Amino acid sequence: MISNAVSVFSLFQSNIDSVNGRFVIHIAHIGGSIIDFIFHFDVHATAPAL
Q: Which domain, by its residues, includes 34?
């Protein structure tokens, strides 16, 4: 679970510019909650595609 979160975090850092900084706000807001972090990532991952 932890290593998956690290990989997801790396994807976040790579795509910050692509999502206009939206992920940056979620990272700062979530802080250390891995569950919420992945949840928000999954929720917003489909939005930029549209």
A: 2-45
